[in-house]
Amino acid sequence: MWIPPGRESDWIFSTFPGHLQLLLSSPTTQPLSRLILVGNSPSHPQPTSYNSTLHFSYSTALQQNLAPLLSALNPKSAFFGDGEVPEVPLLIYEDEVVKSSVLEVCQGPCVGEMLIENVELENDGVKEFRRRLRFKRMPNFVQTQIRIRPKGECCLENLDTVEFELDTGVLVQPYLSPMVAGISVISQFLEGQLRDGFRRKALCLGVGGGALLGFLRVHLDFEVAGVEEDEVVLEVAKRYFGLGSDELIHLFAGDGIKYVKTLAKNESEKSRFHVVMVDLDSTDPTMGVCAPPKEFLRKSVLLAARAVLSKEGVLIVNAIPSSKLYYERLISKFQEAFEELYEIDVGNGENFVLIATNSKTESALDFNEGAFLNKLKLVVSRSYIDSIRKIPKNAHAAFDK
User: Fold this and answer.
1) Using an 8 Å Cβ cutoff, are 216 and 203 in contact?
2) pLDDT tens, position by position, 101-118
3) What does DSSP assign to residue 370?
4) Count of CB atoms situated within 10 Å of the CB of 371
5) Burial of 283 (C-beta count, 10 Å sphere; 0-12/13-18/19+)
6) Which tens digit of pLDDT belongs to each residue from 322-346?
7) Domain with 109 in it
8) Can you say whether the dihedral through the CA atoms of 21, 24, 26, 32 is positive or negative?
9) Among 70, 132, 257, 300, which one is least packed by beta carbons within 10 Å?
10) Residue 64: what pLDDT?
């Protein structure tokens, strides 16, 4: 695989977890047994700012020059059979990143080293700026990203010199808008709560940069509690991603699963939530990107999650299944613990959103009016709301990967 010149220090190309994820996510038709990275030696032990316009691009002449070396690195077994020299495919790593500016590299007691960066993306000629959070333990996966805008007129050639402001009005992480759309399953119930003078309450397991918490608070008027395992991540969210802590946003550092189990023991109705959002992923890089972690699928945990919901509450989970079998197991576990289960296919070939209800709500999907539902349709794409599909018991979900 050809490393983009200038990105050699990026954790994607300079760490074992990054290499492993590249190997597991290979686009080749046959599984790779050996991955060879071709590029310059890293110029720095930590990720550095990047500008694609300052570096030369890959050429076919370079591939021809490298061919003998790459052939020599083949395993001996590749030469058995017809005796021909095996062809080694040379992959070109491509993403939307045109430029990047490193804001900080810091370390948390739970997640380890993390990187905060501003990036310029280009897709089909359209440019956009985002702020991102990535962990070294899984560097190919963007933990959090929000849209940013340059302040005033400035030169954009060097992002290190550009001052940005946050744009929190849009959720750019692909699965967050579908997660918010999942609330529509109980919109009729939430309308009644509002009429009776009750504030809507949400619990978010996994905070990251806090984009989801801030969105629920500002745009849908929820009182939100967020639980993040690493206190340094919470500090990063406040410093770089605009996450505030006020009378309607409550932040806790700790294990989200333990937090739910403890909360489930409290029988007070005041401790119940209308919505519980789960955005937790596996911490094991050998599993690839996988969510939720297998620990969350224990029956005791799922029942505890159900217990912290109000009677008509809903559990909404970001799911990144590693295989069709894993997704079917996921479906089965949720159906054992909850009354009904719905799903949204995010459409990116990776994420699904599972929506588990505490009581029967199927008729609520036909509820098309109300202040809350109308507000919801203004802030998330209606296509996600319309695509919500109930998963019948013992039926296969829409997994296609």
Assistant:
1) no
2) 999 999 999 999 999 999
3) S
4) 12
5) middle
6) 889 989 999 999 999 999 999 999 9
7) 11-167
8) positive
9) 300
10) 78
